[in-house]
Amino acid sequence: MAYDLHAPTTGRRISRLGICIAAVVFAAGAFALPASAAVGSPARPPVTSSSAGDPNSQPDGQCKSGYVYRDSFEGDGVCVTPEERDAAHAQNPNRQPGSNQCKPGYVYRDSFEGDGVCVTPEERDAAHTQNPNRQPGSNQCKPGYVYRDSFEGDGVCVTPEERDAAHAQNPNRQPGSNQCKPGYVYRDAWEGDGKCVTPEERDKWAS
Question: Comparing C-alpha atoms, which of 104, 72, 116 is closest to residue 90?
Answer without folding.
Answer: 72
